[in-house]
Amino acid sequence: MVVATEIIINQSPKEKIRELEIPVIDLSGQKSKVAKLIVNACEEYGFFKVINHGVPHHIIQKMEDEGFEFFDKPLPDKIRAGSANPFGYGSKNIGLSGDKGELEYLLLQTNQDSIANTSKFRCAVSGYVECVRDLACKILELIAKGLGVPPSSFSDLLRRIDSDSLLRLNHYPPVTDTSDSSQRGSTIGFGEHSDPQILSLLRSNGVGGLQISLGNGNWVPVGPDPHAFCVNIGDVLQAMTNGRFVSVRHRAMANTLTDRSRLSLVFFGAPPPEAIITCPPQLLKQNKPRYRAFTWAEYKSHTYAHRLGETRLDHFKSV
Ligand code: GA4
Question: What is the model's pTM?
Answer without folding.
Answer: 0.93
